[in-house]
Amino acid sequence: GRPFKETAMQRKTVAPMHVLFATQELTIPEVGVHAERHGRELMEAVETYGLQIAGPWLFVSYNLPRNETDRYTMDFCLPISNAQAYTGERLSVKQLGSFPCASLVYDGVLRDLFTGGYRPLIEQITAANLNLTGESREVYHAWLGPESHENRIEIQFGVV
């Protein structure tokens, strides 16, 4: 196995960015299937409209539930530098605002993302007496598939 990596929370503010995105109402177990479908749609739009990818995929959740049955809204986002080039109908473009957050980088398989990423981050946010804004993000710095130990996913919770 790999050496244990300390998962310490960091405070930072993510700069605003333009994204091409698809919105989906879903439950936590449904993320994978929707990510695949919307990912294909977004990549087809990149090719069709000559969009310039400006950063890693990010999934933005609004009021992420604490269980697997409640529905919530997620935006599957791809940062792009030439947003005005998208003239299609099926997807949308918007600017994500400046985002003050508490973040933690998780390395490993998808099934351990909650215990190895979300849980320690939420515990540290609670210990620091920070208030959640209801927006959270997953940034896919490296994605090689759900079973890969080489995945690198940054979890960001909006805080005030």
Question: Which key terms come to mind for this protein?
Answer:
alpha+beta; globular; 160 residues; 2 helices; 8-stranded antiparallel beta sheet; single chain
Average pLDDT, all residues = 94
Helix-strand pattern: EEHEEEEHEE
Low-pLDDT parts are none
Structural class: alpha+beta
Backbone shape? globular
Helix content: 10-25%
The main sheet comes to: 8 strands, antiparallel
Strand elements, count: 8
Intertermini distance = 37 Å
Query: Mind telling me the C-alpha Rg?
Result: 16 Å
The proportion of strand residues reads 35-45%
Instruction: Report the total helices.
Output: 2
Strand order of the largest sheet: 1-6-8-7-3-4-2-5
Give an overview of the whole structure.
The protein is 21% helix and 38% strand. The protein is an alpha+beta fold.
How do the helices and strands line up, and which of them pair or pack?
Layout: E1 10-14, E2 17-26, H1 31-49, E3 58-62, E4 72-79, E5 92-96, E6 99-107, H2 113-127, E7 132-142, E8 152-159
Antiparallel strand pairs: 1-6, 2-4, 2-5, 3-4, 3-7, 6-8, 7-8
In short:
This protein has helices at 31-49, 113-127; strands at 10-14, 17-26, 58-62, 72-79, 92-96, 99-107, 132-142, 152-159. By secondary structure, it is α+β, with helices and mostly antiparallel strands.
